[in-house]
Design goal:
By secondary structure, the chain is mainly α. Helix content is 62%, strand content 0%. Helix 1 crosses helix 2 and helix 3 packs across helix 4. It is globular, with a radius of gyration of 16 Å.
Length: 116
């Protein structure tokens, strides 16, 4: 858990070594999932504090999670389709799956093929 918090603090401070550490670690998927879930939960709490009658906390958390997933998909599509990197980075639709499912540990960015 200390490693997770060190990475979060490094990311907040825009420390290059923190980003390289996450990039090199193939088991960081659980940390990424935890960060997204915590972010969704805190977003839900913040929205409920600002607008008390907006919705229940679980509904707001699910909405924040869906908003994150939409933004991640948009970012992926822009990076894969509009800014392909001159063929240096092979991308496919199944390439994003490793971010969510733990069994997809090897990403196609590293291996040059779709995850198994």
């Amino acid at each position: 858990m200390i490693r997770y918090f060190r990475r979060v603090i490094g990311a907040v401070l825009l420390d290059v070594t923190a980003y390289e550490d996450v990039e090199a670690d193939t088991s960081a998927t659980s940390h990424a999932c935890l960060t997204v879930l915590l972010s969704s939960a805190t977003t839900a709490v913040g929205i409920q504090r600002l607008w008390p009658g907006a919705a229940s906390l679980p509904e707001l958390a699910i909405g924040a999670l869906l908003a994150w997933a939409s933004w991640a998909l948009l970012t992926f599509e822009v990076g894969a389709r509009l800014l392909p990197g001159h063929g240096r980075t092979p991308m496919s639709g199944s390439c994003c799956v490793h971010l969510v499912l733990p069994r997809h540990r090897r990403c196609c960015w590293c291996s040059g093929s779709s995850p198994a």
